[in-house]
User: Which sequence fits this backbone?
């Protein structure tokens, strides 16, 4: 039982490049979330999804897009990476609203 | 903006002592959760307390919730070196599906 898997684990991008972060869960969870974690800032919600085919904006959505075409996958896209997007990105999922989250191990992204 | 704020930002104690961390939040909530994060790792869910509950226990963890003061506390009893980690509270504002995390308390337990 893998839980929540994030790929890649590390990535270095040049300013202006694009990339997609993949989050996959095998627990049949309805809800999925993308957070970013920066030093001294805690975790900030980027986008989330309450079910297959749905997405919604979180606290800091600018510069990111997401898609949830399949229930088990939640993709986070950066269309034109900027140094301000250097961060550790965490994906999480939960079975129901109001339940505890299961987190992935994170993707460390550096934009130079 | 952060919904929850933990206090203190950092805490250092001796093994065997108790550790208390506090969380304050701004709006009405459905639930409050506490998470642990070991350095460089993902967050691990510790405990969830609902807005109609005042206290909850799980092993060496005790969580209290005071909705009138919009605050919660996490007590770790008989701490161990393995408890060294950052601890975060997370709240879901009433009517939303999303949890907002605080900035965390860094706990160091000295052997």
Assistant:
């Amino acid at each position: 039982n893998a839980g929540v898997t994030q790929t890649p684990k590390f990535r270095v991008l040049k300013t202006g490049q694009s990339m997609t972060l993949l989050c996959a869960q095998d627990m049949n969870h309805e809800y999925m979330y993308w957070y970013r974690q920066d030093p001294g800032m805690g975790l900030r919600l980027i986008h989330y999804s309450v079910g297959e085919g749905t997405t919604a904006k979180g606290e800091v959505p600018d510069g990111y897009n997401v898609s949830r075409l399949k229930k088990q996958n939640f993709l986070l896209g950066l269309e034109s990476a900027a140094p301000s997007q250097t961060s550790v990105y965490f994906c999480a999922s939960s079975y129901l609203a109001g339940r505890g989250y299961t987190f992935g191990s994170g993707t460390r992204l550096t934009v130079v | 903006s952060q919904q929850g704020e933990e206090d203190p930002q950092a805490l250092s104690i001796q093994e065997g002592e108790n550790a208390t961390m506090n969380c304050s939040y701004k709006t009405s909530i459905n639930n409050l959760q506490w998470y642990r994060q070991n350095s460089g790792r993902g967050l691990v869910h510790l405990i969830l307390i609902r807005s109609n509950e005042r206290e909850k226990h799980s092993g060496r963890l005790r969580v209290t919730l005071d909705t009138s003061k919009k605050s919660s506390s996490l007590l770790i009893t008989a701490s161990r070196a393995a408890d060294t980690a950052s601890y975060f509270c997370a709240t879901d504002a009433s009517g939303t599906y999303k949890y907002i995390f605080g900035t965390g308390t860094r706990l160091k337990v000295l052997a």
